[in-house]
Amino acid sequence: MEQRLAPKTKLSEADLCETFNVGRMKVRRALLLLSSQGIVDLQSNRGAYVACPDAKEAKDVFEARLHIEPGIVGSICGTIDDRGRQILRDHITLEKTARLKGHRPEIIRLSGEFHVKMIAVSGNDLLTRIIRELVTRTSLIVGLFGSGNGTSCREDEHEEILHAIELGDKAAATALVKEHLNHIQEGLELSKATEVVSGLKNILAV
Amino acid sequence: MEQRLAPKTKLSEADLCETFNVGRMKVRRALLLLSSQGIVDLQSNRGAYVACPDAKEAKDVFEARLHIEPGIVGSICGTIDDRGRQILRDHITLEKTARLKGHRPEIIRLSGEFHVKMIAVSGNDLLTRIIRELVTRTSLIVGLFGSGNGTSCREDEHEEILHAIELGDKAAATALVKEHLNHIQEGLELSKATEVVSGLKNILAV
DNA sequence: TTGACAAAAATTGTTAACAAAACTTTACTC
DNA sequence: GAGTAAAGTTTTGTTAACAATTTTTGTCAA
Lengths: 206, 206
What we know:
By secondary structure, chain A is mainly alpha-helical. Chain A has helices at about 15-20, 25-35, 55-80, 80-100, 105-120, 125-145, 155-165, 170-185, 190-205; strands at about 10, 40-45, 45-50.
């Protein structure tokens, strides 16, 4: 399972009804919610498609995360309790075992979930929801623009961030989160997809 | 017009269909979107109600805004162009005339919209959407917890913020935005509503 | 073969009827 | 009168049929 759908994939209502064994109403309801989260593109009278963010939208997502995440992580340095620490430690253990097993989609999922859990330990449900949405969109973007070489980011960066948090080193924690997000962004080739698409169009349009 | 609905107000589908002259489908669609934005509370089999945020949720909203807005406003200090400056100036003019006319709901609406426009000039559509959502929820909260005395915030704070932006004074701009948000929050009585409600319940339960 | 056009099929959007759940009223007992 | 139970009403959730739009297929002429 856990097969990802490529951007632009058409999500027909009938197919979704069959695969999930639910009525058309619930499918439409789900598609509407997904479109409000920007991971499905809902076109009037033409159907639903897996969103295909362009370079500008990708830039917006990373800019937003850079504006939001470092500050929150910094603020939890002083407030995190034993329970919070344990949650993050346990998660990193999960990530490590997943990496040993080499299950790529699971690694990506857990990698994103770490960011959500960092915000979650701040206790702010609203910010947690916002970051969860941004992380989901980041996954889409990494899948679309990510260069094939290796995993999306250095493996031990999460551990370093947690270390700074445990030391209560606010400055280090925020700096590491910024670096980490920048690393993910730098691993992308934001010109790639549009090149491919428009390139194909140009060739076929000769 | 422009009559606000009190929190906990029931939004029955039939009523909404009639008032807006649309089918039940579109009403349900709208309610689902509003609930995903946290301004409508959708209860299974019981209907839709105007959201009634509690003190914790109110705190989360202001905390989120304090984490997000100051940094963005700081970043636009260096990048804003003439068009952006003009948009913000024009808006402040709008606010002033509305204040002279004394149309309270309009004043509140414009006051919130200023924050959205500040983010909008940053060019990040995603952050703009996020802030718009937070501003909407802030309006709900101010309506619910706001003490009656005067408007929700000092009238000239927006002007001061714009002034700092025009000077390109990053430190001042971020500080002013923080202060401004804190002023709004301080103008609330987060214990009020719950006291009233639970107080009433206790009295009636004797 | 390619292009335009028309018919057919498939898909989405909407309406209306039906089912299920919650709320209100009524009737009855204590 | 207070409380409870049952019938009735209202409201929401779901299904199914219908309408409108898009996409595909097929045909014919250049």
